[in-house]
Design brief:
By secondary structure, this protein is α+β, with helices and mostly antiparallel strands. The chain contains three helices and seven strands. The protein has a single domain, classed as 3-Layer(aba) Sandwich (Aminopeptidase). Strand 2 and strand 3 (about 55-65) form a beta hairpin. The N and C termini lie far apart (about 35 Å).
Length: about 150
Amino acid sequence: MDWRVESYDTLTKDELFEILKLRVDVFVVEQACPYPEIDDVDRAPETQHLFLQSDTKILAYARCYRQSDSVASIGRVIVSAEMRGKGVAHTLMEKAIASCEQSIPHQRLVISAQCYLDKFYSGIGFVKQGSEYLEDGIPHQDMVYTQGKHS
């Protein structure tokens, strides 16, 4: 297994296919939530695609991107069904935070988290901001990273 960080332009066609397949399998099919899963953030020049790969299979994924001049964000955080419960999500988020800090200058680091994962993200150092809201029919909560310089 190998952790990788790539820009859109450096992903191979097969890597991109496997990333998108995992995202659609979980976010659209498993969560029964039809929505436009693929967006322009995927191919933005500063977006970093972080993933855990075993042979050609993508086992975990997150994207790190610029939300505004002073805000970076982590989104599309996903762990394949066979890797859940093995600590991969914590490692994924640690690596995503590090990737944002290294490649996307920012003053704040934010996420839009599914509410059922509140405890997980709080344990990593994210704090709720604002009220819960529905995004594509799923309760979400904006959260900001408060470790280190991001408060």
